[in-house]
């Protein structure tokens, strides 16, 4: 089954701690993303930090502003797509590849990705390109969460790190899910494409 999510619907599910950690900020700076209100509220947030940390906090505030600008841009043209399929039990080979303990319970396999055209944005602007890639990764994670909640909000998802470069694992999942249905493929080097593509097992 294929589920499509708009960018605006996923913003509330973004893992901002993971976003800021990817940019080498301590996770405490991610609290800026939870603030609602005017510049006075944000200024108050800034002064809550010790003076030695305020420059870094100011950088985090600026990064969030840039991330929201990118989100607004992405929301105009792109979406996040998930593809999932339920199975009464994991095939033995797949169970071995993901190192899960044998369990005879139903599983849902999922692959998710953003539109591949996003990979081409800001090719000549390293800073904005990195923001696009990191925010898109968080959106795809949010898409997996949103789709999981539609299937059954009581289930848990086991995300598979796309950087594992396990071609055998991707091939096993591809055989079961048929990645091309949502434009996902496996490169010759064993990477998932587009860059935002991620897989998960829901149980």
UniProtKB/TrEMBL annotation:
Residues 7-81 form the AdoMet activation domain. Keywords: Methyltransferase, Transferase. GO terms for molecular function: methionine synthase activity. GO terms for biological process: methylation. The keyword Acetylation does not apply. This is 5-methyltetrahydrofolate--homocysteine methyltransferase or methionine synthase. It comes from Bacteroides coprosuis DSM 18011.
């Amino acid at each position: 089954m294929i589920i499509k999510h708009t960018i605006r619907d996923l913003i509330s599910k973004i893992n901002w701690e993971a976003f800021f950690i990817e940019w080498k900020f301590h996770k405490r700076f991610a609290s800026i993303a939870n603030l609602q209100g005017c510049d006075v509220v944000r200024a108050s947030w800034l002064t809550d930090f010790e003076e030695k940390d305020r420059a870094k906090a100011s950088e985090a505030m600026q990064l969030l502003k840039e991330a929201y600008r990118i989100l607004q841009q992405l929301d105009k043209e792109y979406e996040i797509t998930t593809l999932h399929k339920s199975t009464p039990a994991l095939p033995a080979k797949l169970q071995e590849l993901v190192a899960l303990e044998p369990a005879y319970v139903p599983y849902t396999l999922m692959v998710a990705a953003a539109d591949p055209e996003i990979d081409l944005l800001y090719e000549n602007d390293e800073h904005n390109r990195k923001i696009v890639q990191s925010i898109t990764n968080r959106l795809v994670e949010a898409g997996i969460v949103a789709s999981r909640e539609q299937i059954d909000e009581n289930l848990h998802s086991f995300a598979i790190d796309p950087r594992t470069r396990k071609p055998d694992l991707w091939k096993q999942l591809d055989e079961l899910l048929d990645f091309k249905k949502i434009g996902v493929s496996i490169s010759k080097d064993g990477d998932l494409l587009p860059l935002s593509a991620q897989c998960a097992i829901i149980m």
